[in-house]
Amino acid sequence: EKMKNNNEERSNIPYTPWHPTFQYVSQVLLPNDIFDIEAENEIGKLPLKIDFIVIKKLKNVKARLPLFFDFLNDYKYAILEYKSPKDYFTFFDYIKLEGYSKLYCIKEQINNLSKVVRVGIFSRITEKTFKELNINGYGTKTISKGFYYIDGKIENSYLVNLDEVEKK
């Protein structure tokens, strides 16, 4: 009801094209040989969809899960990125997982991000990926062989290297 009233109030306010206005002011103020100003960027050709698996926990009970998946009991939402065995998991795959999971939280109006876990699952990764994570403030902590926790953010993230985890 409150949201509806706010939308009705906003509909009475005249539209101001803020982005083009701010772009123009920026172009006037900033030297164009030093700064390039882009007003809009298309990040995809299709409607924005996340190509990830989303697991929602429907009941607040502890499920009996295989040891490897037990951490899912601690979260209401799990957002998983699975890379094919031929593909490497890169720093940018992690950033995409982080960004898309936040967009999902916005869409679903999830305001308690500690109830969301991100999981990157892959068979191939390089040391460069771990170095880039660390350079950008994402610490990695080994939980067990092939199972890593990404440290340093509000949200929880794990990386799982299927070729390294013990087969159970």
Poorly predicted regions are none
| Spatial strand order of the main sheet | 1-2-4-8-7-6
Task: Give the biggest beta sheet.
Answer: 6 strands, mixed
Number of strands: 8
| Classification by helices and strands | alpha/beta
Task: Tally the helices.
Answer: 4
Form type: globular
Oligomer: single chain
Please compute the radius of gyration using only Cα atoms. 21 Å
Helix content: 25-40%
- Beta-strand portion reads 15-25%
> Averaged pLDDT, please?
82
Straight-line N-to-C gap: 51 Å
* SSE run: HHEEEHEEHEEE
Could you characterize what this model shows?
By secondary structure, the protein is α/β, with parallel strands linked by helices. The chain has four helices and eight strands, in the order ααβββαββαβββ. The strands form two sheets. It has a six-stranded mixed beta sheet, with helices on one face. The model has no long low-confidence stretch (mean pLDDT 82).
Give a brief description.
With 168 residues, the chain is α/β, with parallel strands linked by helices. Helix content is 29%, strand content 23%.
What is the fold's blueprint, element by element?
Blueprint: H1 2-11, H2 18-29, E1 53-56, E2 77-82, E3 88-89, H3 91-108, E4 116-122, E5 124-125, H4 127-135, E6 139-144, E7 147-151, E8 156-161
Q: What keyword list fits this structure?
A:
alpha/beta; six-stranded mixed sheet; 168 residues; 4 helices
